[in-house]
């Protein structure tokens, strides 16, 4: 249909230029994607989210080509980066814009589908790289990794300005998966749990045992993680609060992944005195 726009894509945006020119010559409305798929994979959509009480800024970075999310937390001039990609320029620019110094970098887990930029970024900035030690070895044969990490345990506290970022060990997707909690208002869940499902527990050995541990941890989360705040943010973002609410700990008026880039509000139902849902923020946009 010549009346509809056409996007032409190739690996690096070179051949697509010629194809778009030819299509325009034929009467179509064609454009070439600058940088091709390589450029698309580097794109990070930045969203400023309502911060928890002890944070001044909370920024989400959506790598739409990869389906991955990362976060920048800022409190009293100190910044903390969660799940960064290999190109951290957008994160560093946002920290500079907030007049904040990065004091720590963390991964919620070792990612099986892309390379983390966390270790290199932490080394370049000479700040700690936080990771649970169970994710510092190869999951199939236990070969130790060569990462320099600041080890996280269940309940570890990371000072960030006037805020405290607490690590909760949530194994299942990986042995060392953690959820980061701020003010019991926001949970950065990694791939531990999704809006409508859970993170796959089959990446490595002992799959059945890990699946059982994941289920037990979900029960513990439902019992022990009270909180308050808005609904999950981002397109189909990972949602710890979804598990909490579906298990009867709270009855929000609205709960879901929301439309792309806009939060879905979660409100307490009339007469409900139970804990409200955590605003849960994950590391991928799948499911």
Please outline the helices and strands.
Elements: E1 5-8, H1 15-25, E2 29-32, H2 36-42, E3 45-49, E4 57-63, E5 68-75, E6 78-82, H3 89-97, E7 101-106, H4 118-125, E8 129-131, E9 150-151, E10 157-160, E11 163-169, E12 178-182, E13 186-190, H5 207-224, H6 240-246, E14 279-282
Parallel strand pairs: 1-2, 6-7, 7-8, 8-9, 13-14
Antiparallel strand pairs: 3-4, 4-5, 5-6, 10-11, 11-12, 12-13
Helix pairs in contact: 5-6
What does the model show?
It is built from six helices and 14 strands. By secondary structure, the chain is an alpha/beta fold. Helix 5 crosses helix 6. The longest helix has 18 residues, at 207-224. The protein is globular and about 65 Å long. The model is unreliable at 218-278 (pLDDT under 50).
């Amino acid at each position: 249909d010549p009346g509809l726009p056409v996007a032409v894509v190739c690996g690096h945006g070179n051949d697509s230029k010629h194809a778009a020119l030819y299509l325009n010559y034929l009467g179509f409305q064609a454009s070439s994607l600058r940088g091709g798929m390589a450029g698309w994979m580097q794109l990070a959509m930045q969203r400023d989210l309502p911060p928890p009480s002890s944070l001044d800024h909370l920024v989400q970075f959506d790598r739409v080509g990869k389906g991955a999310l990362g976060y920048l937390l800022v409190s009293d001039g100190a910044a903390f980066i969660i799940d960064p990609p290999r190109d951290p320029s957008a994160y560093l620019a946002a920290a500079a814009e907030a007049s904040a110094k990065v004091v720590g970098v963390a991964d919620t887990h070792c990612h099986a589908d892309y390379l983390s930029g966390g270790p290199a970024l932490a080394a370049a900035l000479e700040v700690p790289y936080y990771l649970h030690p169970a994710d510092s070895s190869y999951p199939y044969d236990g070969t130790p990794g060569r990462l320099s990490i600041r080890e996280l345990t269940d309940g570890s506290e990371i000072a960030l300005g006037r805020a405290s970022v607490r690590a909760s060990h949530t194994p299942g997707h990986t042995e060392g998966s953690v959820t980061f909690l701020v003010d019991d208002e926001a949970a950065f869940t990694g791939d531990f749990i999704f809006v409508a499902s859970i993170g796959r527990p089959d990446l490595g050995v002992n799959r059945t045992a890990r699946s059982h541990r994941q289920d037990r941890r979900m029960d513990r989360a439902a019992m022990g993680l009270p909180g308050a705040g808005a609904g999950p943010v981002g397109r189909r973002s990972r949602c710890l609060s979804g598990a909490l609410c579906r298990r009867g700990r709270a009855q929000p008026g609205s709960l879901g992944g929301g439309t792309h880039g806009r939060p879905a509000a979660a409100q307490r139902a009339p007469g409900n005195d139970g804990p409200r849902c955590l605003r849960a923020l994950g590391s991928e946009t799948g499911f």
